[in-house]
Amino acid sequence: MEEQTDTTTQIDTTLENEPQLTLADIALMASVIAVVSRRGGFEAGELKAIGELYEKILAFLPKQETANAETGNTSDEQPENQLNFDFAKGETVTQ
Asked: Are 76 and 24 in contact (CB under 8 A)?
């Protein structure tokens, strides 16, 4: 029985060390794409791929937020010491 506990502990420790990607991070990606695009940071040949990625991100976010609301999962909340970027609404950075 103790071997099973050791294996579970190893898996839990491994998962804790893995990088985490939250919905806030994905929303930030969409904001960065919007800002860089608005500032002319992409070349003409890149616009189609960037636009498709942007649309995928926007389509993904509402589905995930709805699923989290139904399950009560609020794991994408930002800690108090994390920066909050709001590029799409006036290109400001708050701390």
From this structure: yes
Q: How far apart are CA 68 and CA 48, in angstroms?
A: 31
What is the enclosing helix (H) or strand (E) of 94? strand 92-94
Q: Please tell me the distance from the alpha carbon of residue 86 to that of residue 32, in angstroms, as a whole number.
A: 9
What's 74's DSSP letter? -
Q: What is the pLDDT of residues 36-72, one digit of tens each?
A: 999 999 999 999 999 999 999 999 998 887 777 776 6
User: Where are the domains positioned within the chain?
Assistant: 21-71+80-94
List of E strands, 5-91:
84-86
